[in-house]
Amino acid sequence: MTNSHAARGIDTSRPHSARMYDYYLGGKDHFEVDKLAAETVAAAYPGIFVCARENRGFMHRATRVLAREHGIRQWLDIGTGIPTEPNLHQVAQSVVPEARVVYADNDPLVLKYAERLMRSTPQGRTTYIEADVNEPDTLLGAPQLAEVLDLSRPVALSLNALMHFVTDAQDPYGLVNRLLDALPSGSALALSHCTPDFDPGTWEKVTDIYTRAGTPVRFRSQKDVARFFDGLELLDPGITVGHHWRPDAGQGDTPTGQLPTDAEVSLWTGVGIKP
Ligand SMILES: C[S@@+](CC[C@H](N)C(=O)[O-])C[C@H]1O[C@@H](n2cnc3c(N)ncnc32)[C@H](O)[C@@H]1O
Question: Of 81, 85, 102, 256, which is least surrounded by CB within 10 A?
């Protein structure tokens, strides 16, 4: 680890999920250790690149649909990742320039690039909080959040490719409920989550690779992902594999030109509205 990285709390001696994900997306903001771990995952599961790309595509479409059809003007995006254009606020503000977005991640490396997340339209506003989804009260109580979001008005809680980093022992459903409890009626949950449903053997290997690299993961079935939406009104088409969620709402950032298989994507996605 270099001194400057150490000073910012960035550990370059072991792979980290945000930087491995940056590698899957073809980004440049990762270290050799992340690339090696990501290549080990890709050797076991070559679909990982398609999965990452389709995950971004789902985020783009869900954001557009919430802005256009459900009047959402505010987003709380937890597990933001290293910025990848277009970022959520760019998608939202392309529909509603006054959109406000709070980003949060627990990786100090993301903070280093947070400036890229702050390039808001003049009418809208964005901010970044270094925070952990395992501490929802700290996150919700952050002064920066209160400066950007009005929690008396609907907010879309965006948890994309995040909750599989929260194990059962960490009470993932309780955490999401705590966050949703703080949001008023008309708010939304947009969530994507990797799954072993289509190829259990491969996902067992992926689980082992992440766990051995020091990142415990819990990839979940469609039934277990559906539990995150308990008490919400699921938008059509329900919990679907990423590329099947409202493909009419526009392309992702890097369209493949040909439809991937469900096993390649291996990502359950859904959007629900709080009644
Ligand atoms: C696979 S990336 C997803 C990035 C982005 N949400 C997307 O879907 O394109 C997962 C992100 O979640 C972050 N993360 C993992 N565990 C977290 C936690 N407990 N609290 C906050 N962020 C977390 C990682 O640092 C990483 O940036």
Answer: 85
